Amino acid sequence: xxxxxxxxxxxxxxxxxxxxxxxxxxxxxxxxxxxxxxxxxxxxxxxxxxxxxxxxxxxxxxxxxxxxxxxxxxxxxxxxxxxxxxxxxxxxxxxxxxxxxxxxxxxxxxxxxxxxxxxxxxxxxxxxxxxxxxxxxxxxxxxxxxxxxxxxxxxxxxxxxxxxxxxxxxxxxxxxxxxxxxxxxxxxxxxxxxxxxxxxxxxxxxxxxxxxxxxxxxxxxxxxxxxxxxxxxxxxxxxxxxxxxxxxxxxxxxxxxxxxxxxxxxxxxxxxxxxxxxxxxxxxxxxxxxxxxxxxxxxxxxxxxxxxxxxxxxxxxxxxxxxxxxxxxxxxxxxxxxxxxxxxxxxxxxxxxxxxxxxxxxxxxxxxxxxxxxxxxxxxxxxxxxxxxxxxxxxxxxxxxxxxxxxxxxxxxxxxxxxxxxxxxxxxxxxxxxxxxxxxxxxxxxxx
Length: 448
Fold this sequence. Notes:
Elements: E1 8-12, H1 29-40, E2 45-49, H2 56-65, E3 70-74, H3 80-93, E4 98-102, H4 104-109, H5 111-116, E5 122-124, H6 129-137, E6 147-150, E7 156-158, E8 188-190, E9 193-194, H7 205-208, E10 214-215, H8 218-230, E11 235-238, H9 247-259, E12 266-273, H10 280-288, E13 291-299, H11 303-308, H12 315-327, E14 331-338, H13 345-357, E15 362-367, H14 375-383, E16 384-386, H15 390-395, E17 406-408, H16 414-447
Parallel strand pairs: 1-2, 1-3, 3-4, 4-5, 8-11, 11-12, 12-13, 13-14, 14-15
Antiparallel strand pairs: 5-6, 6-7, 9-10, 16-17
Helix pairs in contact: 1-6, 8-9, 9-10, 13-16
């Protein structure tokens, strides 16, 4: 592909109907890594983030304004029909435009997406920084790892995806092409690792990226944080699910914080920390580097369910870790999913009682959504049935966030799960209210 008619336009696709808010609070990291890699190689480009309210017409206008030869869309499976319409309208407005698609939806559907949407010229599976650059540079498609393309006679080819083993080799995002001041949250998002070695049956993470955990080195993480400190930032959001996976790395980060005299920071782990690998030592290390807010992906408080979903932990372990984290002064957020097979009304009551026993900052409950390519979807196909077409609920995610999506063996009825979701919302509200009241009482006591 010839990208001499630069700049390339890269679009982060986002819709409020996804259920994640009207606008993005922080810049999207996936497309930011693509942007930084292109910047390092002097490929001129522009970023358009629909999470800031950018519209279809504005995207088309920008492409025409810069006489771009190519456009890239970073997309997920939510509201996919709207994304297909966006791609079609962009291609119709500028027929010569080469359309490149990447993101979770492309990695899941692969060649099926190009069959469905002929307007997409290329797709990139998995990690796309290097592959996108090689495509724009004009490398032969058959030589680019992770590329989906149309070969001879229009036959769609899928090259084996690229796994970047040394992610220190990728420059960290500096958001130079982003409207950084337009995001409401004035913190910096960080991604310190890729891949997941675990086998939770409901999750796409390991299949989309890799089953091998690959972490940035402690030195590289500290370099990234120091860069943003130099620009006046003191609050960071860690988005990866396995930040605390490696205790040796945490110790090295702590050592470098001391060596470099890193000032006091506020670090929030929003992506979640795995309960099964958490220890007092790791919690102490997290506290020492400024972690204030920590999230745990608990999912269920039933040993039978935890075994079924291959979570690798127990209710006893969950209770101990949550108790320890709250006692050490962390703001603790817990993630739960309602609707798993083997969940019962009693196990749900046990879960609600568990939340009430601990001063957690927040409990968040999600309706169980079966995703394509997961072991959970395979199990439902064998032991039950979906009540709605996949495309229907993925295109209307916000509408279906409290509607059970399937029925199956060993699973509570649709009515029971719907009532449980309703009850869970109240439990979550009560838990947060208790935390705030306790915090206020503590502050008043300190003043006395």
